[in-house]
Amino acid sequence: MPTVSVKWQKKVFDGIEIDVSLPAYVFKAQLYDLTGVPPERQKIMVKGGLLKDDADWSAIGVKDGQKLMMMGTADEIVKAPEKAIIFAEDLPEEAQATNLGYSAGLVNLGNTCYMNSTLQCLKSVPELKSALSNYSLAARSNDVDQTSHMLTVATRELFGELDRSVNAVSPTQFWMVLRKKYPQFSQLQNGIHMQQDAEECWSQLLYTLSQSLKAPTTSEDPDAVKALFGVNLRSRLHCQESGEESSETESVYSLKCHISHEVNHLHEGLKHGLKGELEKTSPTLGRTALYLKESLIDSLPRYLTVQFVRFFWKRETNQKAKILRKVDYPLELDIFDLCSEDLRKKLEAPRQKLRDEEGKKLGLQTSAKSGSKDSDVKMTDAEASSNGGGESSTVNQQEGASSEKGTHMTGIYDLVAVLTHKGRSADSGHYVSWVKQESGKWIQYDDENPSMQREEDITKLSGGGDWHMAYIIMYKARFVSM
Amino acid sequence: MAPVPDPNSVAGGAKRDEATLKVPSKDPKKKDDKKEDDLSEEDLQLKQNLELYVERVQDPNPELQKAALESMRQEIRDATSSMTSVPKPLKFLRPHYGTLKEFHIKMADSDLKKMLADILSVLALTMSAEGERESLKYRLTGTEGDIGSWGHEYVRNLAGEIAEEYTMRQGEESSIEDLMELVRQIVSFHMKHNAETEAVDLLMDVEDLDLLLEHVDSTNFRRTCNYLTSAAKYLPGPDDMLVLDIAYMIYMKFAEYPNALQIALFLDNMQYVKQVFTSCSDLLKKKQFCYMIARHGITFELDQEMVANNDDKDALQDIVNNTKLGDGYLTLARDIEVMEAKTPEDIYKAHLIDGRASSGPSVDSARQNLSATFVNAFVNAGFGQDKLMTVPSDSTGSAGNWIFKNKDHGKISATASLGMIHLWDVDTGLSQLDKYLQVSDNSIVAGAVLGIGIVNCGIKNDCDPALALLGDYIDKEDSSVRIGAIMGLGIAHAGSQNDEIRNRLSPILNDAKAPLDVIAFAALSLGMIYVGSCNEEVAQSIIFALMDRSEAELDEALTRFLPLGLGLLYLGKQESVEATAEVSKTFNEKIRKYCDMTLLSCAYAGTGNVLKVQDLLAQCGEHLEKDDIHQGPAVIGLAMVAMSEELGLDMGIRSLERVLQYGEQNVRRAVPLALGLLCISNPKVTVMDTLSRLSHDTDSEVATAAIISLGLIGAGTNNARIAGMLRNLSSYYYKDASLLFCVRIAQGFVHMGKGLLTLSPFHSERLLLSPTALAGIVTLLHACLDMRSIILGKFHYVLYFIILAMQPRMMLTVDENLKPISVPVRVGQAVDVVGQAGRPKTITGFQTHSTPVLLAAGERAELATEKYIPLSPILEGFIILKENPDYREE
């Protein structure tokens, strides 16, 4: 009986006797004892061939001391995953678009970059999109006029189309409806449509949407747009002459950042914007008198829009001039010190919680860090004055905290979209939007071309040169769950 | 300026002559007038003496004649010792050359006439008219005395005249006996005086190199052989073979077996290889030979004659079979500390890319996953571990299913990548692949059988697992399984000339029912297995298969593998291809020219044959009306022929630049691939820049080829510059899935084996060309000629053919028991020392490391210790070290 050695994986089994009178299966059974590999899975290689179960040893001519090699494992056989894997290449076009991580650009229809960039910024608000998708086509409530309805539908359609396609979308329908609703956008100059102010487009569009989406039939949310963008301001009016004081509340869709010589930073501009003077008929004096108005934020929106008041009417040249001054803005904005006392109280607890969480992340002792920094901030300005910007409305808003139970506003906002203007006057130049995607990547939408950008480049859009400079910026509230 | 005698001057006369000569040269006019006056007293004396001798020579008195001749000879010999200027006596004798010549004719035959002939021979050195060869003429009639007594310059001149005379006489078919005697003298003189190169030159001119054997000795044979081997590259066939033959014999004569073996391998002469084994008695040395053969990648069976002892034979055969290659490679990896598996993400380094980084797709992209599969396979090749394929499936659940993250045919490549990861480790590889053979999915089975082939690449085993396991799959129903098995066999058995496989594969070629893709891969695999064998039967099968193809099939991209398979049979075999090339002229015109170009380029691959380069260039230069596919292989062929040595290589690169500017689009598309081949694993900056420019070409096919080639030139180098370029390209092409795929593959190439591998088919100081390695590269390049249908289509697994060229670029020293030992070595840029005087340094700009070390392209290593003696002078791959018995610790 010849003895052979069998090599299996890294192991060598020496001196295995072969009973040449028995079929090879018996030998396989021997190996099964040694290796634990069932005979049917064993592949034994003898000089360029496999050993068959019924092979005759004499035919193979095995020699004493010959080396055989065995392949085979007792491992489980690999199975395909239960759920078939879906590949991007198999998906329809719209799914591929979502896979790309950002949506398509908008074709410029001739000086429509103001509109394109506005739309791209607004489209980045998912809540607005969902509110629009709930808006029904047919059921137009009576208090919404025909054109507003059409504009809302057109917006909805356009947003949908943008999400579905990979290539640039042409917003022709939307543009027509927009001009119908707001004929001022149809201004012609030398036979072509003029460049318009993106801020106007933005506020008009939002106003229309707020009107049509407010209709009771649309959704359970009475005023979706206001809930998203509205900022309630509580203003104190103080007349120095008469000493009389009054207070009023108003709701605006955006805060203004006034740019004067002292303003270098968004925060200063905002503070500046919340103070103002106005002339008003004083009931006690019986004539118009100068009033100081000082506003504080009473409720916070989910999306805080800030407009840099870069354009002003220059009387000498009879045109809208632009302030090129550099005004820095942060990626993370804390507006705690612009809030009213009531609101601050409400924000205290969530902010503490947020700090704790952050501290934990950094591995710091949370208890040691109290909110001393924030309590230092004092609201010394007591005078109230009125702010003239925005559509005022005295509708009482629900709390700044979101409707979702358990999550609370913190007064801290993250930058999500920047609409920039490049050029020297409002009627010329070029508008571009820079939008942060859900993935955290920044995309620059230059009409039909979306391109990736780095986050650090976003803060460089603060002006002070001829580069793109921020005109409208939008922040998203940071929530904390309690 | 009066000449002042230099008191220190030994050869005073000569020195002063120079001084005096300079004066008149300042003013030519003066020279004529005052020539006589300018001479110093001594010179004048000499001149007068010489004139006297000339007169006396013509004297009828033989005594006087003899004395005069002897004096004249004495004067000349004294002066010819220095050759910084024309020796004085020769100069003064110039006017009398004619007189003496005439007198010589008149003279009766005598010793004196011979003496005069000697002198005339020397005088002819400066005075004979061009092409007259008077020096030789008088030498032949002279005294035949010691040739060296007249100085080196005389001998050199004589050698030149002999060469001329020889060609003339060859033309007239007259005797050369008298010349050969002289040649013998000259050779012996040169060999004694460190002028081996001149001796070799002369012998090459008179076509009698055998003479060298008599004259080499232990001091000069190395330099002689060095010169012979490097000269061989520039000689037309069959002279180059003769020259190498002589080099081989010289090495054998001095028992310099490693070098002899090297040349035997170059000549592809198994008889010589065998002779090396039989002549050498040292077992350890034989082991070293086996390492060299293993590196060359040929199949070689040892027999009783070469090694008497059976156990020894087994041990040696093991080395030839490359069974220890994997272990050596892992030793290197452990030493360099790169064992940690790398993920494709580690290679892409997306965080370094500006803004454009892909936004972490939520859905798996089959394309991107496939590229990740390849990158993972290339980067972790041979390490036996990675982070996609070999992680246990139960640990996280998802990782083990990487195969299923590839779509359809992608699964073939994914499963086969296991073979790549376990490259050279047959035992583990087979057990890993085993379970996939049982799966019901045909793509996975196809990948598993291909993987089995890959894991056995370059490794031979008595049990021959590749054939045993794959044999059953060749005739399966599913074509992808068949292709997997066929390709696997081709890779595992490349160069083995295994008849059993031929008998299995040949019938497929002529099977009318077999699909085209199966036939194409069968032809290719046969070409690989019989690479450079000129096997008639295989050639016939492929030719018939080609003839049987229908018009429509000839348009298929894969059809190109048939002519390529045919070409591989004749790889590097030059004229042997001619019969087949004739037959190819009868093919359908669609494939005829493609076949022609492929055969031509394969047959002359690595020969540096300038005529063939010109032929191919002419093909590239044609501006064809319709798109013809044959120009692609012509461009690649250009690189294949020119790649053999540095000069031809540079010339090739320059010619390709021209082709790029003036060529048609389909020529331009192949140029990057040709550049990639010329500089494979050798990232030359100029080529890198050219390819970087082309990678942004408006023609996307030029761009894809350039991107792949960027990967090829940086293959296995981790070259940071190329890596940076590719990263930028990945962001530039982030929207184009095909180009991005190519960028990924190129990134995989650059980081191949984490930078421990090379794709260069050349080894042993760029002398030897491994045929299987070249076959692998050429196949890949031909596939790249139609990237869209092959690599970007569903035959991406042809990328695995590159495995044939993958070799560790290491130098690993082992002791007498073949255990790795660490010794200090100097690694530096290799210097070409051929034909240089003295003992020049062979490396420059070196650094000292301890083995194992990596060797980059153009680098050479030398031991930095006297403690050991390497058994091979070529320090590459595995080197056995013997302790130096004379070494003393300091």
What does this structure look like?
Chain B: Belongs to the proteasome subunit S2 family. Chain B: Residues 14-37 have a biased composition (Basic and acidic residues). The complex is a heterodimer of chains A (482) and B (890). Chain A is an alpha+beta fold and 482 residues long. Chain A has a domain at 3-71: Ubiquitin-like (UB roll). Helix content of chain A is 28%, strand content 28%. In chain A, the strands form five sheets. In chain A, strands 10, 13, 16, 17, 18, 19, 20 and 21 form an eight-stranded mixed sheet that branches. In chain A, strands 2-1-5-3-4 form a five-stranded mixed sheet, with helices on one face. A four-stranded antiparallel sheet of chain A has the order 9-8-12-11. In chain A, strand 6 (188-189) and strand 7 (192-193) form a beta hairpin. In chain A, helix 4 (113-123) packs across helix 8 (198-214) and helix 6 (146-164) packs across helix 8 (198-214). The longest helix of chain A has 22 residues, at 341-362. Chain A is elongated and about 130 Å long. The model of chain A is unreliable at 366-404 (pLDDT under 50). Chain B is mostly helical and 890 residues long. In chain B, helix 16 runs parallel beside helix 18, helix 24 packs antiparallel against helix 25 (426-437) and helix 25 packs antiparallel against helix 26. Among the domains of chain B are: 43-210, no CATH class; 257-321, no CATH class; 810-883, no CATH class. Residues 1-34, 356-360 and 394-399 of chain B have low confidence and may be disordered. Chain B has 46 helices and eleven strands. At the A-B interface, strand 3, strand 4, strand 5, helix 3 and strand 20 of A face helix 22, helix 25 and helix 27 of B.
